[in-house]
Amino acid sequence: MADDGQARQGDNRGGDRRANDRRRTDRRAPPPPWRRPAAFVGYGAAGVLALVLLLRGCGGDDTPTPTGPIAPAPPPIATTPTPPQPRRIEPAMTTADFERLTLEGERARGRVVQAQLWCEAPAAVALSSSTDTVEAAIAPLVDRATLHVPGATCLWGAQDDARREEFLLVVPPDLADEFASQPVVLDGYVRRRRVVAKVEWIGKSRALALATVGIFRGLSR
């Protein structure tokens, strides 16, 4: 009887105990895409990029941002020299014109006029020793070695005008031959050269002892 009970109890355990201890080799499912190695690599790259952008945003920008309107580029500089513009020649043939230019003073300086002159032979005229100022138009004509300028003493106006006054005509060396080509005539009792000239009016010159001065700029045809 006891043996039968033990047999029934043994039967209730049923089967081999080793079979119950064996582990089942179930097939595992693949991990989701966000847990794969490639996804972790992408997470790292995105973190590095975010860090770089954050550091750039926090750093100062040394280059100032223009806030006003941008000026246009300047025009190209011309390298060809501009030809000098011809000066308008003002008729001043009479003694009255000479007096008018004298009264205008500084306003007439530099003006080119047409004048009728009766001139003596050119000579070297010394600069005044009482001043160190030389007019800009006269300075290039000064002989630096002797401090003289070439000039001729002239009378301005018509030959029969008793009001003619003395006028010092500075003759540039490169125009000396043109000046000398004019005829010498008898003016009263004195032989003078009659010249119808283009004259740059200077007026009273401190460098030439306050003489009324002009510069010969060629013959007026």
Structural notes for this entry:
The structure is a single chain. With 221 residues, this protein is α+β, with helices and mostly antiparallel strands. The protein has 5 helices and 8 strands, in the order H-H-H-E-H-E-E-E-E-H-E-E-E. The protein has a 5-stranded mixed β-barrel. The model has no long low-confidence stretch (mean pLDDT 80).
Radius of gyration: 55 Å
C-alpha end-to-end distance? 169 Å
**What's the β-strand tally?**
8
How many helices in DSSP terms?
5
- Using the alpha-carbon principal axes, give the shape: rod-shaped
Roughly what is the average pLDDT, rounded to an integer? 80
Unreliable segments of 5+ consecutive residues:
none
Determine the structural class based on helices, strands and strand pairing.
Answer: alpha+beta
Order of strands in the sheet with the most strands? 2-4-5-8-7
Largest sheet: 5 strands, mixed, barrel
Report strand %: 25-35%
Following the backbone from N to C, one meets helices and strands in this order, namely: HHHEHEEEEHEEE
Which bin fits the share of residues in helices? 10-25%
